[in-house]
Amino acid sequence: MGRRPDDDSSFLLSWPLIELERRIEFALVTSPEFYANARAYDIAFSDRDFADECNFLEWCLRTHGCVAADDSRSFIELACGPARHAREFARRGWRAVALDLSPDMLDYARQGAIRDGVLLETVAADMADFTLDRPVALAANLMESLSHMVTNEQVVAHLRSVSRSLLPGGVFVIEMAHPSTIWRDNLPNVWSSRSTDVPYFAGEPYTEVDVLFGAADDPYDWITQQWLVTARLTIRESGQPERVVEHRHPHRWYQAQELRALIELSGAFSKVWWYGDMLIPPPPLDNDAERMMVVLRK
C-alpha cells in the first residue's frame, strides 16, 4: 500500500527523486560575469521605490512582530544585490545587514553605503545556510530571489537559517511573483532602464541597460518545476563599446499552497500572513493581486 503524504513529514523532501535524477545541467551555463556588472544591474532594477517598500517592511514588523523595542531596529536583506533596502534602513538609523553570494555585488553595496554615508554590515554567504553573529528583528527576501532556491530542501533550509538569525518574535517578509504571472505566455520579459531615469545616478556617466529576464524558449522541467532562465544585460555607456553579458540559471517559482506546505514543514515560524502587494495597509492575496507577499513571525 502506498504511503500517504501525511504519514511522514519527510515526504515533501524525499519525493520526487527526480530532484536528483532529472536535474538539468545548469552549472555549465552559469556566468559569474553577469553579477560582476553590479552597477548595470542596479540601474536595471532602479525603478522600484525603495523608501516606500521599506515603509511596508517596517509596517510588517510593527503589525506582526513581537520584538522588544530596544532590539527592534535591525534588518537583514537576503540575496541583497546592490542592497538598496538595507542601505535605506541604514539611512534611517537601523543596524543594517546585507547578505549575498556575489563578492562583486557586496563590494558595490559597500561602496554605495560609503556614498550614502551610512554603516552597512555585509555577509558573504549562501542564503540556504547561514547564521548571524547577532540576530535581527526583521529580514526580507525580495524581488523574487526565493526563486533561486530550486528544491524543497533548499527552501526549508533557507527558512530555518532565517529563523536562526531572527530575534524571538521577529518577522521575515518574502516577495514573490503572483502565481498567475509566472507562465510562459508572459515571456519574453524585456525592459530598458537608463541612469537618467532616477535621481540616484545623477552626475554619473550616462548608462543605458536593455534587460531580458526569461526568453520564450527557455526550457522548463514540469517534474522538478525548474526553469532554466536566460538573463541578459545589454549595456551602453558613454564613450564605451556596447557590452552584452548573459547567463542561464535555474529558477523555481512557487504556488501559494506549496510554499505554505514548505513553511509548515520547516517548523521555523509560528504564524504566517499572505498579502497581495507592498502597500499600507496591504490588500489580501487574491486572484487580482499584483504580487505574492508572505509575512512570517518567528
What layout of secondary structure does this protein have?
Blueprint: H1 11-14, H2 18-21, H3 33-36, H4 38-44, H5 50-64, E1 74-78, H6 84-91, E2 95-100, H7 103-116, E3 121-124, E4 136-141, H8 152-164, E5 166-177, E6 190-194, E7 207-213, E8 220-221, E9 226-237, E10 243-251, H9 256-266, E11 271-275, E12 291-297
Parallel strand pairs: 1-2, 1-4, 2-3, 4-5
Antiparallel strand pairs: 5-12, 6-7, 7-9, 8-9, 9-10, 11-12
Helix pairs in contact: 5-6, 6-7, 8-9
Structure write-up:
The strands form two sheets. A seven-stranded mixed beta sheet has the order 3-2-1-4-5-12-11. Strands 6, 7, 8, 9 and 10 form a five-stranded antiparallel beta sheet that branches. Helix content is 27%, strand content 27%. It has helices spanning 11-14, 18-21, 33-36, 38-44, 50-64, 84-91, 103-116, 152-164, 256-266; strands at residues 74-78, 95-100, 121-124, 136-141, 166-177, 190-194, 207-213, 220-221, 226-237, 243-251, 271-275, 291-297. The protein has a domain at 27-179 and 253-297: Rossmann fold. The protein has nine helices and twelve strands. By secondary structure, the protein is of the alpha/beta class. β8 (220-221) and β9 form a beta hairpin. α8 (152-164) packs across α9. Mean pLDDT is 90; it is low at 1-12 and 14-30.
